[in-house]
Design goal:
By secondary structure, the chain is mostly helical. It has one domain (63-312). Helices cover 71% and strands 0% of the residues. The protein is built from 12 helices and no strands. The protein has helices at 2-33, 49-59, 70-86, 103-123, 128-159, 164-170, 176-179, 181-194, 206-209, 219-245, 254-275, 281-312. Helix 4 runs antiparallel to helix 5 and helix 10 (219-245) crosses helix 11. The chain is globular. The relative contact order is 0.13. GO terms for molecular function: NADH dehydrogenase (ubiquinone) activity; NADH dehydrogenase activity. It comes from Octopus variabilis.
Amino acid sequence: MFVELFSYVVSSVCALLAVAFFTLLERKGLSYFQLRKGPNKVGLMGLPQPLSDAIKLFSKEYIKPTLINYFPFLVCPFLSLFFALFLWMLYNSYFFVSMGGMSMMLFLCVSSIGVYLVMGAGWFSNSKYALLGSVRAVAQSISYEVSMSLILMSCLLMVGSLSLVSLVNYQNYCWVFLINYFMFMMWVVSSIAETHRAPFDFAEGESELVSGFNVEYGAVGFALLFMAEYGNILFMSFLSSAMFFGGGFLIISWGLSMSLLVGFMSVLFIWVRASYPRYRYDLLMYLIWKSYLPCVLMILIFMSFFCKLVYFL
């Protein structure tokens, strides 16, 4: 028990460090996409910039608006970061084997809880902008969780197990990406929408909602929400790599190949943000309910028949 707890703590610390320097990678990447320099004043090439930003945010005065519901308003950011780090229990480290045979059920349960925290952050702020931002974020998250769950089920049908380890081991000889490329593309778009990233960042529509559900947060509260968002991005990159590429390439070690794949998937989030303008909200909803959902259901039905046929043969 102690070894497993220690392994989870190490994974969480590594995830927090990855979040810090992923913010630097995003700022650098967006700047070079726009033919300008990113942060380069603090230290060597701006590398300590995330640490200085963290010190600034955590040392600022925590301003509490008068009309907020005090206790739940303060708790929501802490719980958001806690559940974002809790997902890293699925990481198959040396001492800790990703929650046994029910790891994908844990992912679906914990990722669903995040919807309530986003709603709470907007609701307990008692601000019309925060409430509208949280409602849009919840509607978006719930809609795209449907397609993500069905895509995940279609992958797990091939394995016959709810374990992430079984899904990774199943792809030792053939990636799921090669079996169904279109399913991978729908998963990527659903992941971007689920994490509220551009071009689907309607929860933070600056032109109409100022900053969305986190408009009343500052200092520590904003920093925790910010870290939870980027932690979810990195975890979705890890899960996408494990689901569709088996966690790596056969020609190099699992740890190195997994790092390369997670890095590529993380850069893809930045690349999409730099390339596409913000989508229209009604078109986003039409995309999931009128396009993705019928396609995913057809794929799921086909995979169920195919797996049953293979079982009988």
